[in-house]
Predict the 3D structure of the following.
Amino acid sequence: MSDLDVDVVVIGAGPVGENVADRAHQQGLSAAIVEDRLVGGECSYYACIPSKALLRPVDLLAATQRVPGVEAGPIDVAKVLERRDGFANPDDSGQADWLSGAGITLLRGHGRLAGERAVEVTHHDGTTTSVAARYVVVATGSVPAFPPVDGLDTVNAWTNQEATQVKEIPESLLILGGGVVGVEMATAYRRLGAQVTLVQHGDRLLPTTEPEAGRRVQAALEADGVDVRLSTSMTAVRRDGDDVVAALGDGSEVRGAELLVAAGRRPATSDLGVDTVGLEPGTHLEVDDATTVLGDWLYAVGDASTGAQLTHMGKYQARICGDVIVARSRGQELGGRYSHHATTAEHTAVPQVIFTDPQVASVGHTEASAGRAGLSVRAVSYEIGNVAGAALQADGYDGVAMLVVDTDRGVIVGATFVGQDVADMVHAATIAVVGEVPLERLWHAVPSFPTMSEVWLRLLETYGL
Ligand SMILES: Cc1cc2nc3c(=O)[nH]c(=O)nc-3n(C[C@H](O)[C@H](O)[C@H](O)COP(=O)(O)OP(=O)(O)OC[C@H]3O[C@@H](n4cnc5c(N)ncnc54)[C@H](O)[C@@H]3O)c2cc1C
Ligand SMILES: NC(=O)c1ccc[n+]([C@@H]2O[C@H](COP(=O)([O-])OP(=O)(O)OC[C@H]3O[C@@H](n4cnc5c(N)ncnc54)[C@H](O)[C@@H]3O)[C@@H](O)[C@H]2O)c1
């Protein structure tokens, strides 16, 4: 006998888990959600939201400095942190109220699978609740990965949690990792007053983006005064007085008041009881296009799954997952590729915006990933600064747009925009990629003058239209 019987139980109330529970519940299924820490997950308090709250003021100030006649700054760091707190104060009562208003049962505590269709929740006071459910969804997210660096567990290294919830900007910051977290935090901390040293063991920043994007972000960070060390790893770290000192593979040493580890994430599936249903703890749960892990009953979404590790993609997976569960509960067949039952965009059109200055906004393939996927492609690029809209936006506008065209089908399979204020330009590309709009038809999508979107016309002309 279980303590609670529901149609759907979701483990993890991050943005992704909340969306599955809501989607299923709105279509008539009873739902419970288990949360160990804060309803709203990493994204709301320690990731997307506070990091963008730190970045928006420095981005805005830089934009004003590119338009003569506009006086702004200096930045009031205390007010920036206060505004960040307004967005990301770690108090989840509002989100918990939303769940109960939506009719979803919140169980606070640590959830673990306890065999098929069963979850055991250990509450913070040690008591337990056993839950029986027709469908179980894992939405437990991810935790920071710590690379094997001697002494890393002895220096009180920061993760994204300390970096995004900081109360006082340190004089200097070492950053381990030149991926998305590393470059965004380098931008924010440098412009909020810290000396920043960033160590990346690959030969470029943002290695999964178009190489030109990494080069331009690196040039901008260096122009700001960030010390970027590429092609070298941190081998050992130690505290020396108040500082952290890091030994690098090239024999040099760097130091800073704090060390931020931004070297990727690992799925929060280690202490989840997945072994009780024959799965390997600590790995991303492998999903099919319907977000299913096992049978018709176990699902995974968000960072804990093999899907894309971004909030908007996790929420897309969540909508599909909720609809798949509802369809199966009604004995309905699942639909095909572009139905509500398949995460097709995972294969074709994952968008991402990196909020550095310049921003990097991309969707779908890079030229390199298209090649690896066996597509015949041609890539074209155009300097965004050459269009009137960009010249008006900022003096000396520095940015580039790139399209990756599938030459067999005459459609765009990838796009990247690098530059100030390009974040919202990527959605047009996302629509073109998902809609598989032929280039000849795109020719008739006329961009307004004088906007930065005119770069679309220049790209098509460069391609030969
Ligand atoms: C610094 C930083 C900035 C980022 N910025 C962006 C951005 O701008 N845009 C973007 O799209 N993505 C961004 N990301 C990625 C984004 O944060 C993740 O993709 C997103 O949070 C994943 O959502 P999730 O619901 O799967 O997991 P999470 O947000 O991690 O939520 C999982 C929840 O599950 C709970 N949980 C875990 N295990 C258990 C258990 N056993 N029992 C009960 N509860 C459990 C956790 O406490 C947590 O609340 C950023 C990441 C970082 C680190
Ligand atoms: N704006 C956004 O969309 C946004 C912002 C932040 C984070 N995120 C997501 O959060 C996740 C985590 O981001 P992240 O930056 O931690 O991971 P990441 O995988 O993007 O980057 C980690 C980087 O660390 C480097 N690295 C790893 N070990 C190293 C070592 N020992 N020495 C030096 N460098 C090392 C890797 O080469 C890699 O470039 C990603 O999925 C990312 O997409 C998204």
